[in-house]
Design brief:
11 helices; 6-stranded parallel β-sheet; Rossmann fold; about 325 residues
Length: about 325
C-alpha cells in the first residue's frame, strides 16, 4: 500500500505511461484494484520453480520494457532486469544487489528519517527525470480514490449483514497484526475502546472488528469483551478475498489498528486513522506513516526507551487525544 503514491506519481506524470507491477500472488488482488496500474505480472518468488522463473523472464523480454523501478532491491530482481534487457534500471543504492542497476539513489532508509512512502516517491521522481518526464506537481491523498457510492454500498451491505444503524458513526478496530509488527494486546484494545467510548457517549459509535486469516477467533473474543462492557460491537463478516476485504474498510468513519496492512489500506483511502507503533527506529510512526492527509492520522507509541513494550502506552491519555481529535473532524464534517 505504501507503493501506491509511487504508482500514482508514475501514472499521473503522463497518462500514456504503461505501468506494470511485479508482485507475489497474495498481493495481486490489491494490485489489480489499484487505479494507477495497467498490468499485473505475477512473481513466483525466490522459491519459485525454474520453469516459472523462465516464463517470467520470457514474458519480460517480450514486453520490451523501457525501465525497471525497484523499491526494495534484491539480487534476483536486479539480475532479472539485466537478463530481461531492460535498458534503464533504478533502485536504492543499498545492499550489494545495487550492482545490477545502472541508476541508483542514495537514501539511507535505515536512519528512518522519512516515511517509507516518501522514500518510494523519491525513486519514482528520479526515474521520471531519467525518462525526461516531469513529476506531477499536485500529488495528494486519497491514493485509492473511490466514488462516494462505493462507501455507501459497503455500509449498506454491512448494515444488512449485521442489522446495525448506518446513520451512527462506525469505528473499525483491527486488533490483529499478521505477525508483521508488535501490537496492542486484545485486552489493551478493550481498555482503549472502553476509555474512548466513555468520551464519545453522546455519539454512541458502533464498534466493528475486522480480522485477517486466522485472526477471527481473536476478533470474536474482543467483540464479546466489548459487548460485555456495554458497547455496541460486532465482527465484520469474512470476505472472500483481499480486494473485497479492503473495499469493506471504506465503510469506516474511523479506523484503529497497529502498524499493519489494514491500517495502510485505510490510509490509502484517506480515512481518519489511529495507529499504534513500537518505538524502535526501524518501526516508528514516522517511518511507517500512513499516506492519508496529515489531519487524518494520529499515532501513538511508547517512550523511546521502552522500544517494543506496548504496555507503556498510556491508553487513558490516548483515548482523550483520539476523542478530541475525532470530534473536531466530525464538527468540520471532514469524514469522507
Amino acid at each position: 500500500m505504501l507503493a501506491w503514491p509511487t504508482l500514482a506519481c508514475l501514472k499521473l506524470a503522463r497518462p500514456d505511461n504503461h505501468v506494470s507491477v511485479l508482485v507475489p500472488s497474495y498481493t495481486a488482488p490489491l494490485a489489480r484494484a489499484c487505479p494507477w496500474v495497467d498490468e499485473v505480472i505475477l512473481d513466483p518468488g525466490d522459491a519459485g520453480k525454474r520453469d516459472a522463473q523462465r516464463r517470467l523472464l520470457k514474458e519480460l523480454r517480450a514486453k520490451e520494457c523501457d525501465a525497471l523501478l525497484t523499491l526494495f532491491s534484491t539480487p534476483r530482481i536486479g539480475w532479472l532486469g539485466v537478463r530481461a534487457r531492460i535498458p534503464l534500471r533504478l533502485a536504492p543504492a543499498t545492499k550489494w544487489a545495487q550492482i545490477f542497476y545502472n541508476r541508483r539513489v542514495v537514501q539511507r532508509r535505515s536512519h528512518s528519517r522519512k516515511p517509507e512512502y516518501r522514500y518510494n516517491l523519491e525513486l519514482a521522481e528520479a526515474l521520471l527525470k531519467e525518462l525526461g518526464q516531469t513529476p506531477p506537481k499536485s500529488l495528494a491523498p486519497p491514493y485509492w480514490p473511490l466514488p462516494p457510492e462505493t462507501r455507501q454500498t459497503q455500509r449498506q451491505r454491512i448494515k444488512e449483514e449485521l442489522g446495525i444503524d448506518s446513520e451512527r458513526c462506525w469505528i473499525f478496530l483491527h486488533a490483529g497484526s499478521g505477525g508483521s509488527a508488535v501490537n496492542l494486546s486484545r485486552e489493551r484494545y478493550a481498555e482503549l475502546a472502553g476509555n474512548l467510548a466513555a468520551r464519545l457517549a453522546e455519539i454512541r459509535p458502533i464498534w466493528l472488528l475486522t480480522a485477517g486469516p486466522g485472526e477471527e477467533d481473536n476478533a470474536d473474543h474482543l467483540a464479546q469483551i466489548l459487548r460485555d462492557a456495554g458497547l455496541d460491537a460486532h465482527r465484520v463478516p469474512p470476505r472472500p478475498n483481499l480486494e473485497t476485504f479492503a473495499l469493506t474498510l471504506a465503510a469506516a468513519d474511523l479506523f484503529i489498528a497497529g502498524s499493519t496492512g489494514p491500517l495502510h489500506i485505510a490510509g490509502c483511502l484517506d480515512l481518519p486513522t489511529v495507529g499504534f507503533y513500537p518505538a524502535k527506529r526501524s518501526a516508528t510512526p514516522l517511518r511507517w506513516e500512513t499516506c492519508n492527509r496529515a489531519e487524518h492520522r494520529l499515532a501513538f507509541s511508547p517512550d523511546p526507551g521502552s522500544a517494543t513494550d506496548m504496555q507503556k502506552i498510556d491508553l487513558t491519555r490516548a483515548a482523550a487525544d483520539i476523542a478530541a481529535w475525532w470530534k473536531s473532524l466530525l464538527n468540520e464534517r471532514d469524514i469522507p
